[in-house]
Amino acid sequence: MAPLPKHLTGDKAAIDEFINQFDVFLFDCDGVLWSGDHLFPGTVETLELLRSRGKKTIFVTNNSTKSRADYLKKLTSMGIPSNVDEIFASAYSSAIYISRIMKLPAPKNKVFVIGEAGIETELRSEGVEFLGGTDPALRRDITPEDYTNIANGSMLDENVGIVLAGLDFHINYLKLSLGYQYLARGAKFLATNLDSTLPSAKTFFPGAGSISVPLINMTGQQPIALGKPSQAMMDSIEGKFHFDRKKACMVGDRLDTDIQFGLEGKLGGTLAVLTGVSRKEQWEVEDAPVVPHYYVDKLSDLSG
Ligand SMILES: O=C(O)[C@H](O)[C@H](O)COP(=O)(O)O
Ligand SMILES: [Mg+2]
């Protein structure tokens, strides 16, 4: 059984020793920096402190509703200076995977998107054709004619080769019905991420993983998930920054995405923050599957 994590909150010497160990900090976003549009107090000061001590900060989010450019706007609007290169979001890693790794031959390489604008922006920037997503024509109830047109294929695009499911605040029966038809016709099943919940407004909402469950249930297929803890994302981050993994620390609020991401990535450290999804009871149980190296009650404890 992995040793229990060291609690850093209130322990200045331990915090200093912790910070000195690492050159690079990978920061999760939802549940660590902010909850929805609410920035946690002390976040800006903590990032400034780490940067003032020469630490590299990289933002790694599973939230596919926004593109990297959108996140840059959000970070900047919250007083966190950054640049697009420091931001890795699951919509971006999904677009990269489709355009540079899968490289399905045309014409059957279109993507049916279940998700928001972030996915569309990143697919567009990689020159990947898509449909569905935020298309207003699909934001409606299914009609009797739809059943007929879906069944006879007239409502389907024969060049769809991939179904990509992410967090969709406008999910409905029609989109799920179309998604199923494409998968049943052999399209590859991808997910930006499989987080079951989204922490926001101090409670939880359906996560991307809960959006793709109906399709998993209907097809019996598990999608390839491209967000944390997928190491495809870690490899692309390392590929960009060429950092020493032993000198890097993953900071996150969720054990089965963030902390697992850091552990599977063989990073030098993982820090759990208790302002989001996971609770310390989850790693205190016998044979807990994922145990972080360190934890704090809130991120600002590092600069408190
Ligand atoms: O449902 C989701 O997509 C997740 O809850 C959300 O994306 C988590 O974002 P992160 O904590 O990785 O920033
Ligand atoms: Mg999070």
From TrEMBL:
UniProt cofactor(s): Mg(2+)
Reactions mediated catalytically: 4-nitrophenyl phosphate + H2O = 4-nitrophenol + phosphate + H(+)
GO terms, biological process: carbohydrate metabolic process
Binding site for Mg(2+): 28, 30, 253
GO MF term set: alkaline phosphatase activity; metal ion binding; phosphoglycolate phosphatase activity; phosphoprotein phosphatase activity
This protein's UniProt keywords: Hydrolase, Magnesium, Metal-binding
InterPro entries hit by this protein: HAD-like_sf, HAD-SF_hydro_IIA, HAD_sf, PGP_euk
Cellular component annotations (GO), alphabetically ordered: cytoplasm
Enzyme's top EC category: hydrolase
Record-listed E.C. numbers: 3.1.3.41
Residues noted as binding substrate in the record, renumbered to the chain: 228
Cofactor binding, per record: Divalent metal ions. Mg(2+) is the most effective.
Catalytic-site annotation from UniProt: 28 (nucleophile), 30 (proton donor)
Name recorded for this polypeptide: 4-nitrophenylphosphatase
